[in-house]
Amino acid sequence: MLATISPAAHGMVRSILSAARSALGLGTNRLAEDRRVLEQVILPAYASRTDIERVLFVGCAAYTQHYGDLFRGRDYWTIDPVARRRRYGAQRHVVGRVENLGDHVQGEHFDLVICNGVLGWGLNTLEDADTAFAACHRHLRERGELVLGWNDIAPRNRVLPENVPALRRFEPLMFEPLQTARLRIDAPHRHTFDFYRKPELRTSRP
Length: 206
Ligand SMILES: C[S@@+](CC[C@H](N)C(=O)[O-])C[C@H]1O[C@@H](n2cnc3c(N)ncnc32)[C@H](O)[C@@H]1O
Known about the structure:
Layout: H1 7-23, H2 33-47, E1 54-58, H3 67-70, E2 75-80, E3 92-95, E4 110-116, H4 126-138, E5 140-151, E6 171-172, E7 182-184, E8 191-197
Parallel strand pairs: 1-2, 1-4, 2-3, 4-5
Antiparallel strand pairs: 5-8, 6-8, 7-8
């Protein structure tokens, strides 16, 4: 049922349930498999790496609020265009769209960008997605990594990563802990994680 309501309503329902459960001391709901993979495999794997110092997490909700704890002591940023979501963001939170990341950061700042549940949930046109991932590319260091999580079902997959020109500037990355560059979860939402790396600048030899 949640798949048929608007992204805003979906996020709100999820946040209210999460807040209510934690207020009642009930802990969190059993995690959906895509959330389990994100929280128990992907995020801890990156948090354990010493080369991952500067992190951007795109799109905030009550249930993502604790992700910053994993990156404590690092330069962990969040970004979301909805002003009231600041409460779920990091200390370094930007109210804005990832397409406009360049208004808030200069140069090749980040080692890692995690963009989960935003393509198809706000980044809904090819143009916006292209602008957004071009900004991620611009502000990642060489060999910096991008994790893109998206639902491969209509209407969320109206923009396919394969069709976004900016994503072709990245190389697919074999993410060691999962032994793949693309993991599709075998569940109704067909949540898919794609792993990318910004290539090293090739220096031409004389
Ligand atoms: C479905 S929620 C996903 C939240 C979280 N990233 C996660 O892992 O579940 C989508 C979030 O992305 C935000 N969002 C939508 N368009 C965005 C954009 N262009 N730039 C940054 N965040 C955006 C929405 O405001 C919302 O908070």
